[in-house]
Structure formats: C-alpha cells, structure tokens
Amino acid sequence: MSNEAFDERYELRTIAPALDEQGTPTDETDAWMRAVGLGFHETHPKPEHAATAVAEYAADDQTWLGAYVRRPLPGSVDETWPAGTFAWFRKALSWGDGSTVDTQAISAVTVRPTERRRGILRAMMTHALEQGVSEGYPMASLTASEGTIYRRFGFGCAIRERAVHVRRARALPLLAPTSGVVTVVTPEWLEAGPARDVFARFDARTPGSMVRNTGTWPVALGLRGSDGEPARDVRAAVHRPEASGDVDGYVTWRVTEGHGRDDDTVLEVVDLVYATDEAYLSLWEFLLSIDLNDVVRYRRSRLDDPIVAALGDNRAHDVDHEEDHVWLRVLDVPAVLGSRPFAVDGSLTLAVDDALGHATGTYRLDVVDGRGTVTRTDDSPVDDADVRLDVADLGALLIGSVSPVTLAAAGLVRAADPAAVTRLRAMLLPARTPHGITYF
C-alpha cells in the first residue's frame, strides 16, 4: 500500500499513558489498552488494576503509538480504539562487564485482524525507528510473540532460551557440592529487601540482560498475578554465601498439583535471579529437594545451562521448548560497536546492508585493549570488505550468543576469506553466556 493510500485511511497518533483527575485511565489511554488486550487475547483489567498498570507504564516513560481509522463504521470499536498499537521506551542492555547501551525497547505491537495487509505495521515501525534515530537511540530491541515478523525491519534474534523440566527422582545428588545457605523468605521481604540489588548484580555481569519494566517486579516476586489480583500461591527463598549476610541469589516459585494418576505435580519457577554461579546451583538444589512434587519446570533456561552438567543423572533434564527471545536492531553502527567490550584485539571492515537505510554503509572496526573504535569508510556496502552482512544478522551477532561462523554456514554472512569470519567470532566472544530473563 502506498503512503498516500495509508494516510487516506489511517492517522498515526502518539499518546502518553495517563490518568485523569479521578485517578482512572483517560478515555484515550483506556481505548489504547483495550486494543492491545484484543490483540493479545487478554481480559481487560478491573479499574483499580488498570490504574496501577497505567501508573507503571508512565513510570517507564512509555510512548504509545496508534493507527486510527479516519472514517470508522458506526458501532465499530474503530470509533475510539486504534486499529494498530505500538509502544517504545528506554531500556538499557548489559554487555556483561558493567557497561551498557541504551535501546529503544519496542512493545505492545498489534494489528486488528480486519486491517491486516494494509501497511499498518510497516508504518508504525518506520515511524518508531525514525523517532528512535532522532532521539539518539543506538539500537532498538524487542521480545517477540511470533518469530517471523521482525527480520524484514532489520531485527535479528540475539538470544534464544529454553523451557525445561527436571525430574526430581533422578536429579540428586548433584555431582559437585554446593556452598552457602538457602533460607525461605516471604515475597514481601524480597520486595522490600534484596531483590532489586541481586538483579542489578545479575544484570551487570550478564551479557544481553536488560533492565525490567516497573510492572514486572510485583509479578516476578509473587506479589500479584498477571490478572492484577494478589498472588497467594508463590513462595520465595534466598541464597547467601558462607559466612556472609549478603544475599546473592533468590527464587520465587509455585506448585501446581496434578489431578490424575498420570499427571505430575509441578514446581514452577516464577523468577530465578543470581549474582554468582554458586547461588544458581544452590537454589536449583533447594528446588529439587522440595517434597511433594514430581517435576521442577523453568521457562527461562539459557542454552548452555550448567544445571545439566551438575545433575546426578543428566537424563533427568528435558527440553520442552526452545525459541527466540531477545531481538536487536542496530540503528547506529559506530555507537553500538563502540559501546561493547571485545575479547581480542584486531581490525575488520564490515559492509552492512539495511533496507531501511539507518545502518547502511561500510565500517572499519579497530579493537585495542578490548575496546573498539568504528569509522565509516563508505556510505554504501563495498564488495571488498572483510565481512558483508545484513543489519539483522549484525543484530543477531552483536552480543556473542550467535556465531558468525554459523551464520556464514547458513549463507547469511559473506567473506572472501573465511579467516575474517573466525576473527570476528573471536572478537565478539562474551565472557559469559548471554542470557535474558526480562520480557517487555
């Protein structure tokens, strides 16, 4: 659809989530939230829960975008609801060495089924990324509900994750002794105490980790459910190192009882955050020691989870599902590559193709003492660059969980000399496995 045809049918409007003088969502805010709820098959929250959610969106300084039908039919929700929704806000991504880069975090992307294939998503994405560039974001980020939508806009999948379960009967004892002390606490104590400090330490040491939304915390800590009501079935525990009062890890969980002879009783991990590997293994050992359940299920496992190697019988561990998680989209190549650490020194030229034009060009990367400087050498991708790739694949490689050697084998990274691809892999190698436990 041409821009003229789109503009004739729709109007793009940005709004800020807001409450009125009575402390309830404004009409425009409420309509936008109802459109999002329709897109994700969510029930509309009670008024008091909606007000809480809006206050949390405002605390995150979210910008909301809607595509509104200019001439809605009588009786249609199009009279007040946007036919497409889109949101973005600032969210820092960790490089794992204490340094970060700001990203334009994209969320709440929906298009009404009656308005599909009319250019709404492209118009919203194009507008948002142009705003991101003008606001100085080096990169955009998102977590996707579908895996085939975003590559055409320059996003690459930088982190994958697994949903796993471990059968208790075969898991213990672990092959190596754990250390420290695990104690049961209340979710309220976690919320008032160490939870955010532990997450900050996890975030600083973990490549690919991103700060959490304001509204994530009450759910992760077991204070309320996703419906806004108080959660009454979540427990919590913390880990402390030997001879230390400092908390370096915590877990929240709930147990769902099986109702049939062949149904497992499942301990579901709600949130598992750790500042040290010792805390992670000790908390897993604790979970596997809880009686009256058959299976521990964790939906945020990284691909090289050390618990697999630690189990007494590693066949107790099974993968239920694996999928894409964090997607990254480079907007400013020099700013992004200049913000991250590198494992080895060296120099490469990168030719980047970008259908939207934000990152198109050829760049020389020089790394000295683990830090890079980037110089644009041409406004177009040149054939004699060491490595040529699409901006989506640059996003996928960026934090080091995806190897350029793998993408070269898939035909997505091209180099005249394979040694250049190997050198790029060595330069991007992270100190720890990238891991994201934040959704938005």
Describe how the helices and strands are arranged:
Blueprint: H1 3-9, E1 10-15, H2 27-39, H3 47-59, E2 63-69, E3 84-94, E4 100-111, H4 120-134, E5 139-143, E6 156-167, E7 181-185, H5 187-192, H6 195-205, H7 216-220, E8 235-240, E9 249-256, E10 266-274, H8 277-288, E11 295-301, H9 306-310, E12 317-330, H10 333-339, E13 346-353, E14 361-368, E15 371-378, E16 387-390, H11 391-397, H12 404-409, E17 413-414, H13 418-428
Parallel strand pairs: 4-5, 10-11, 13-16
Antiparallel strand pairs: 1-2, 2-3, 3-4, 5-12, 6-11, 6-12, 7-8, 8-9, 9-10, 13-14, 14-15, 16-17
Task: Name the helicity range.
Answer: 25-40%
Q: Note the beta-strand portion.
A: 25-35%
CATH class of the largest domain reads Alpha Beta
- CATH topology name of the largest domain: Aminopeptidase
The best one-word shape is globular
Q: What would CATH call the architecture of the largest domain?
A: 3-Layer(aba) Sandwich
Parts with pLDDT < 50 across at least 5 consecutive residues: none
The rounded distance between the terminal residues' Cα atoms is 30 Å
Written as H for each helix and E for each strand, in order along the chain, the element string is HEHHEEEHEEEHHHEEEHEHEHEEEEHHEH
How would you sum up the major sheet? 12 strands, mixed
Mean pLDDT: 95
The tally of structural domains comes to: 3
- Strand elements, count: 17
Q: Please identify which CATH superfamily of the largest domain we are dealing with.
A: Gcn5-related N-acetyltransferase (GNAT)
